[in-house]
C-alpha cells in the first residue's frame, strides 16, 4: 500500500524544526532500538515516533542529525549499509544511497562510521538537542562523542556547552496535524470502525473475548494495518470495569455487556475506539439507562471540542452530564454542583475524558501552557471517551447496577469551526447497535 504522507512532507517537518533550533546548534535523534523477545527472536520492530515523524525511515540502527546551515546538507542520516548477504536473510535495506534517493535526506553515511564522523559535525556547535534522558545507552554515546571533541580543545576545538531536550521543540510540532496526517488518521479510524462493527456482529454467547479480538485483528490486517496501536481491550461483563484489561480470555455470557477498546496503527498513526454492546444484541434496562448517560456525556464533550475552548472543557461537559445521570438514576445523592465539587463521581468515572492522539496513542503535546489549560486549535486530534464503571462489589448502589462497565470513545480532530469525528462509522446509539447486531 502506498504511503499517504509524501517524502517531501518529512523534509518540510525537518525544515520547520530547524527553524525553531538555535542557528549554531545540532540535533541528534536515534531510531528505536531492536528488542529481544526470546532468545534469537525479536519483537516486531516499531520505529521511534519522533524519528518516524522526521524521516519516515523504518529501519533500526539509524541516527538522524540536523545541522542548520551545513553546506553539504542540513539533514544527515547515518544508516546501515546495503549488504546482499544480510539482505538475503533479513530483507531489504535502503543504505545511505537509498536514504538520499528514496527518503529525501540531504546527505547520508554508513552508521558504522558514525563515531568517526559525528564528533566533527558537533564540533563548533554551541547547543546539542537530543532526547536527553530517554535512553541511557544513547546518553552515554552522545557524551562519548563530546569527549572526543573535549580531548581536542588544546588544538582549538570547540565543544558544545548546552544540552537541550529535543522534545520541547519537536512535540509541539507533532501536536498540530497536517492535512496528510489527518488523512492517515481518518483511514486508521475507518479501518478500526469496520473492525468494531465486525466484532459486534460476530459476538455470540458461548464465544470468548479472544474470539472478538481475533475479529478485530482480521479487519486490521485485511487492510494492511499490520499492528494494533495498543493491546486490544475486550472485556465482557465485570471485566469491562477494569480499565486496561487485556487478558481477553473470559467467556461471553448472555446478559453481559462487552467493552472493546481497540484501534489499528497505520503508517505509525494510532486509532483509538471504544464501544460497549450487549452479547445478546439487546441491552437490559439498567444497562441501557447507564449507557444513555455515557452517550449523552460523550455528545456533550464532543460538542465542546472547538477552537477557542480549552483542553478541559470537553472533560467538564462530560463530568456534568455523567454526574447528573448518576444522581437521576439514584447512584449518587445531592446536587450536581456538590457532587462534582466533592468528586463523588470518582468511584464511577476515574479517568479523564480524553488525550491527544497521533503517532502515539497517548500522543505528545502539553495539556497546559503554564498554569492554564491549552486552547484547542485546528489540526489537534484528541479522543473523547467518557465512561461509567460500577464495581461489582459496590454495595452502596442497587445490585442491578453492579458490574456494569461502559465506555464510548471516538477520535476527533479540531477544525476551523468545530470538530470532525474520524471514527463515526461504527454505531453508538442503542438503536443503531441493536439493529446492527440483529442484522
Ligand atoms: N486505549 C487507551 C485509551 O483509550 O486511552
Ligand atoms: Mn483513548
Ligand atoms: Mn481507547
UniProtKB/TrEMBL annotation:
Enzyme class: hydrolase
One GO term (biological process): proteolysis
CDD domains, A to Z: Prolidase
Record EC number: 3.4.11.9
GO CC list: cytosol
Ranges where the Aminopeptidase P N-terminal domain occurs: 5-139
Molecular function GO terms recorded: manganese ion binding; metalloaminopeptidase activity
Similarity remark: Belongs to the peptidase M24B family.
Protein name (record): Xaa-Pro aminopeptidase
Record lineage: Bacteria, Pseudomonadati, Pseudomonadota, Gammaproteobacteria, Pseudomonadales
